[in-house]
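Researcher: Structure prediction, please.
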Amino acid sequence: MTAMMYLFDCTMDPGDLALHQAHQAMQIHKFCTVNNCLVRRRARQILVDRGQMVLGPRATHSPSFDTRM
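Model: Predicted structure follows.
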């Protein structure tokens, strides 16, 4: 299954996302937190890893998420 199929389910890790998919996932899950939404957590990590997002000090206390899964 493709990552797009998992973009709407907070309980399923969508796996590796393209940059545009990560941006889209962040919009879809804008009311979620990285603590309770695997999609938002994965998308945020991808955006951070690719230099599209910089986390502030408050965000560094969120659970780490291994994007190599």
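Model: The helical segments are 19-28, 38-49.
Researcher: Thanks, that helps.
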